[in-house]
Each structure stands twice: as C-alpha cells, then as structure tokens.
Amino acid sequence: MKNKKIKEAFPRGTIQRFATAGGVNTLIFWISWEIFRVTPLIDLIGETFIWTMSWVFSSTIAHFVHRWFTFDGRRDIKQTLLRAMSVYSFGLVLSTLSYDSLLVISDLPIRLIFLINMCVWGIFTWAAMRWFVFGYTDEEE
Fold it and tell me: Has residue 138 been placed in a domain?
C-alpha cells in the first residue's frame, strides 16, 4: 500500500519523480565537485575542468538511477546508455559554458552559480531523458 501511494504522488516519468532522483544525482555531483575543488587538481586544471569531471562522473550514475527509478527499463540498456550519454554530453558542453560564463560575468557566490546552472539544465535533461532516451509513456510496466 505504501508503494502505491508513492507511485500516485510521484508517478514515473514526471518532473516530480525526476527531481527526487535528481536530488540524489545532484548531491553526488555536488560532493564530487566540492572534493575536486579542495584538491591540488584545481590549481593544475582549473575550475571549469573540475566542473566537467564532476558532471561526467555523476551523469554516468544518473543514467542508471533514472532507468531504475524515474522512468523504466523497458528499452534496451545499450540504446538508453548511448542516448543518455548523448544528452549528457550536449548538456555537459552547454552547462559548462553557462557555468563558466556566470563565473566570468557575475559576482554571484560560486555555490549560487552552481545551483542556478543545475536547475536550468535539470529541466532540459528531464525533457530529453523522458522523450529521447527512454521514450517514456504512461503504459503499465
């Protein structure tokens, strides 16, 4: 019964369910970003590449989280992984550009820049994952 209530409150494929899973994925991203930022890597490769490394790491994990929790596993995993990496690669390039641009043109605190950028790209990622990667429909699993 408890599981049914969760499914009714957060149906598969919805932005609410994506945001719930995305919270976990963003936490993974944020923790890896913070860890990389306090290592000597920041002086060697810079802020933008630290962002990129964290994005790649968390995106790989995110595909499997969304396959299991947000959408479903009906499509072949090779197909969804290839499409997800395409979406994540596109998002990586554009989110890195927007992140880097915000760093250069604004005086906002870096963590606020992180939050703004993640929210904007989260909406893009949800839409792309729902329709392009998983081809999600409301049909029963």
Answer: no
| Helix extents (H) in 38-140 | 41-65, 77-105, 110-128
- For residue 6, what pLDDT band results from cuts at 50, 70 and 90? low
CA dihedral (81, 119, 98, 45) in degrees, to 10, reads: -70
Residue 8 domain-assigned (yes or no): no
> Residue 38 gets which letter from DSSP?
T
- Euclidean distance between CA atoms 84 and 129, whole angstroms: 7
Reported as type and span, the H/E element at residue 5 is helix 2-9
pLDDT tens sequence across 61-95: 888 888 888 777 777 888 888 888 899 889 888 98
Per-chain mean pLDDT for the chain: 82
Q: How far apart are the first and last CA of the chain?
A: 18
Number of domains within the chain: 1
Other CB atoms closer than 10 Å to residue 24's CB: what's the count?
A: 14
Mean pLDDT, residues 25-35 taken together: 88
